[in-house]
Amino acid sequence: MLFALCALAGLLVVVTLFDLLYQLAGDATPAISRFGLGFLGHTTWKPGFNIEGAGALIYGTAVSSALALVLATPLGIAIGLYLSMVASPRVRATVGPLVEMLAAVPSIIYGFWGLVVLVPFVDHLEPGLHDALGFIPLFGAPSTIGISVLSAGIVLTVMILPIISALSRDLFLTVPEELKDGAAALGATRWEIIRGIVLPSTASGVGAAVVLGLGRALGEAIAVSFVIGDVNAIHLSVLQPGSTLAERIANQFQGALNNLHVAAMFYCGLILVVIGMLTSIAARAIASRFDVNRTLGGGVL
Amino acid sequence: MTAGDRTGDGVPSDHGPPGRVRLRTESTPRSATPPSINGGGPEPTRAVVFDIRDMAVYYGQNCALADTSLKVYRNLVTAVIGPSGCGKSTFIRSLNRMNDAILGFRLEGRVLYHGHDLYGSGANRVEVRRRIGMVFQKPNPFPKSIYDNVAWAPRNLGMKHRLDERVEQALRQAALWEEVKDRLRDSALGLSGGQQQRLCIARAIAIEPDVLLLDEPASALDPVATASIEDLMHDLKHRFTIVIVTHNMQQAARVADRTAFFSLDITGPARFGTLIEYGDTETIFRGASDSRTRDYVAGRFG
Amino acid sequence: MSIASRLVLGESGRFDPTAPLTPSGNLRRRTVVDRTVRVIATAAALAAVAMLVIVVYGVFVRGVSSLSLAFAFQTPQGLAGGGIFNYLVGTLEVVALGATIALPIGVLTGLYLTEFAGPRSRVAGSLKLALDVMQGLPTIVVGLFIYGLIVIPQHVQSGLAASIALAIVMVPLMARASQEVLLLVPNSLREAADALGVNRWRTVLTVILPSAVGGIATGAILAIARAAGETAPVLILDSIYNPNQTTFDIFHGVPTVPMLIFTSVELPIPEAVARAWGAALLLMLMILIANIGARVWLARTRAKMAR
Ligand SMILES: Nc1ncnc2c1ncn2[C@@H]1O[C@H](COP(=O)(O)OP(=O)(O)O)[C@@H](O)[C@H]1O
Ligand SMILES: [Mg+2]
Questions:
Q1: Are residues C42 and C88 in the same domain?
Q2: Count of CB atoms within 10 A of residue B234's CB?
Q3: Residues β-bridged to residue A36
Q4: Which of B105, B235, C130, C175 has the fewest other C-beta atoms within 10 Å?
Q5: What pLDDT, in 10s, does the model give residues A214-265?
Q6: What does the buried/exposed string (b/e) look like for B126-135 if buried means 16 or more CB atoms within 10 Å of the residue's CB?
């Protein structure tokens, strides 16, 4: 009896997932039959003219997430190392939860804060960045108000930082004390122990943590929608506004012009689901040895 | 019996100048002198590596070891025996500051290493461990290849010249070369327990430390592996000063030149480990002066 | 093998054992590298904490002037006046309903994984994978899914639709939390009950669940705190409502705090923006306090269970 209930609950979870795929594909059908796979590469988005393509969105999604990953991966690993290898247990017990708190702040607040606090700051920053690094196309001419792919990347960095930090901390803490002692007894410094023992033996887990963070960044809608501008354009410069798949849905779904417009956004959603599923499965496959998909410390990341 | 007697401090100690070290280069200091009842036999006329004075170790509020003074001599095998929980690991881990990381660890007294205070402000922990290597109870090979296990520390230390040769010689000295020479690139985790422990010894000696500390290196191993580790001791002591903890008395008798017997002091309300008797292995096993030592080596206790 | 095979390979790394215990050889350089790394790691951790402070402080200074009893207990007057009572009630309704749906499913799934599936069971493996995938779904996509499933056929946005979407967000979190706490229940409890010939389901209900209930509850609180701040699903499913009215009709649009923030931010009315900041601060404080409280409680339950 109870077993049946439990099994039913599990079944419901699995069925929901499949139904989700089915439902999205169904609702996206008008767009799929009209644009086909060309949707993925086409960069025009003109709902008024019944032309929709996700090329610019996919580009913006990739660039903003890549930016977040480039910033959050080294920072997150460094924080994980601090918490597991440098800080005393007491400091670890206070700073660790503080870092995890960053994941508890809702995305709407990151969006609001990003728009009002971060965007003006980035606006100040951008001319300097352009002057210093302008020779790299990524730092081409800046936008005028700080609404940009860079702002989105920074907001996403803050949002995925706690995931990568907390997961890598937990991974580093799984390295057996005997191994660290063994290395220390050979006259190794802390950094040599980290580089020679801790990082190599947890590399796959850290990779999975990064992939999980990437999954979160790729799918973030609300926070990004506030700071990226929802401009359907491909700019090499991250100092220019742009758009992402999830953010586009958040920005335009309420005011959709016609059925095809809605279907196009369902198509975007379908792409997001596939990406999300791939990242979850990839994280699992990379680190089958580690259970990285757990709720951290009972916390929810 | 006074504290002085049981630690052998009653006999003139010897910080012998280098010249005198070579007076007796045979492997044991056992002499024809009959065992004395009040100490561990005559003092070896060798350089003192560790001069431990009134050492006491606390973990937080708990005293794990107290009232321990002894000298460890160069190029001898010094065994530490005693019932479990009497502070043997605590003692040996304090000789290369492995306990520093333990929360609440505190050491009183002095540990002089070649006359330098091991816990003094000038002592660098990493330097200490580079000179005083350690092999642990449980084999702990790194999850790397056999070769990299041995080559890792020399690389860190900048000993990159003729590294292959260094690895080979370390493995030879640890009596492991013949078994692994054809699979140096294989993971060390695929080795048997005894092989893993010898790999850990090879790893420790590859950086040519001054002292090797071994904490029950054979306790997790089968008799054959144990025998091969014991054989190693005899060869290694020509190169290193060795301190080995063992709960196996036969092992101590077979490998050690000098033996220290630790036990729990249960006279007072607090129980803590302490050195009971220290001297020539033969003396400790044949003519110990303390009844607790005699009981222990006779297997009547612990 | 003997003295002949001693290592005498070059001078690098050799040391005089009787020298003082100060760094020898390359140790000075290695220590510099080590220190640098530690400084960088410490700085990174400080930066993360600073980030939290900057965000919390940024919301606090902008929102604190709006906070008052009236803010929490009055309904809005016009676009900028009054309080946000109806939004708070709406969020409570939607989240509570979602949690009511999610909690049994989550706990039962957790029970299935720990009590009924063998450790090597393939069914359990796929279920765990499904939970991971569900947890990794972008929440906006969950909104789209329920939109197609419920809003399109019903032709109306509703608080109920939002609740179901939030339930999908919460289920994997609750299942995970339950599973982790249930794993801490000592096997001896199960064996003791089994030895008495008690049914497995009776054991679960009378022995295992009660001893895990604290942990499950804290896990649920964390999941609820997460759902309370979710904006994407309510934006898709529950964005059409009467902004000035308290409603308990979950079959139609229900105002929620995240939607209030989302819609007020770009209004050209400073008072409306101030109200949005106040709402943001209130929402953030509730979520952070729930998180801190649940963590403290969870740490205590775990310590108790581990004993
Ligand atoms: N890391 C530690 N923290 C607290 N107490 C310890 C620790 N290690 C050892 N002890 C205590 O110190 C005493 C001596 O332990 P140990 O040195 O391991 O003994 P032995 O190696 O002779 O078995 C024991 O009472 C043990 O509980
Ligand atoms: Mg021990």
A1: no
A2: 13
A3: none
A4: B235
A5: 999 999 999 999 999 999 999 998 999 999 999 999 999 998 899 999 999 9
A6: bbbbbbbbbb
pTM for the model = 0.89
CATH number for C164: 1.10.3720.10
Which amino acid does the sequence have at C122? Answer: R
Could you tell me if C134 and C171 are in contact, meaning their C-beta atoms sit under 8 angstroms apart?
yes
- Tell me which of B129, B157, B165 to substitute to probe the interface with C (most C C-beta atoms closer than 10 Å): B157
- Expressed as residue numbers, the domain containing A61 is 53-299
Tokens found for residue C217: 């509850």
Q: Does residue B83 line the site of ligand 1, with CB under 6 A?
A: no
* Residue C34 shares a structural domain with residue C120: no
- Which residue's CA is the nearest one to ligand 1's atom 27? B85
Report the domain count for chain A. Answer: 1
Contact C222, C287 (CB under 8 A): no
Q: How far is C205 from chain A (nearest CA, A)?
A: 9
Compute the average pLDDT of residues B93-110: 93
Q: Which residue has the tokens 């988005």?
A: A45
The last residue of a domain, from among C21, C46, C63: C63
**Residue C37 sits in the same domain as residue C105:** no
A255 touches chain B (CB under 8 A): no
Which residue, of C40, C63, C86, is where some domain finishes? Answer: C63
Mean pLDDT of A110-124: 94
Which chain A residue has its CA at the smallest distance from C262's CA? A108
Among the listed residues B107, B118, B113, the one whose alpha carbon sits nearest the alpha carbon of residue B56: B107
* Domain span at C55: 3-63
| Contact by Cβ (8 Å): B87, B272 | yes
- For residue B262, the ligand 1 atom closest to its alpha carbon is 22
**C53 and C136 belong to one structural domain:** no
Q: With an 8 Å Cβ cutoff, are B173 and C13 in contact?
A: no
Burial C151-187 (b: 16+ CB within 10 A, else e): beeeeebbbbbbbbbbbbbbbbbbbbbbbbbbeebee
Do C137 and A110 count as a contact with CB atoms less than 8 A apart?
Answer: no
As a whole number of angstroms, the distance between CA B9 and CA B3 comes to: 8
Residue B80 falls in which region: left (phi positive, over 0), alpha (psi -120 to 50) or beta = beta
**Does residue C305 surpass a pLDDT of 60?**
yes
Both tokens assigned to C110: 């957790």
DSSP code of residue A118 = I
- C137 in contact with chain A, both atoms CB, cutoff 8 A: yes
State the total domains in chain C.
Answer: 2
Predicted interface score ipTM higher than 0.95: no
Which pLDDT belongs to residue B4?
38
Percent of chain B that is helix, strand, coil (3-state, to 5): 35, 25, 40
Contact A154, A164 (CB under 8 A): no
Q: Assign B117 to helix, strand or coil.
A: strand
What domains does chain B contain, in order, with CATH numbers? 44-140+211-297 (3.40.50.300)
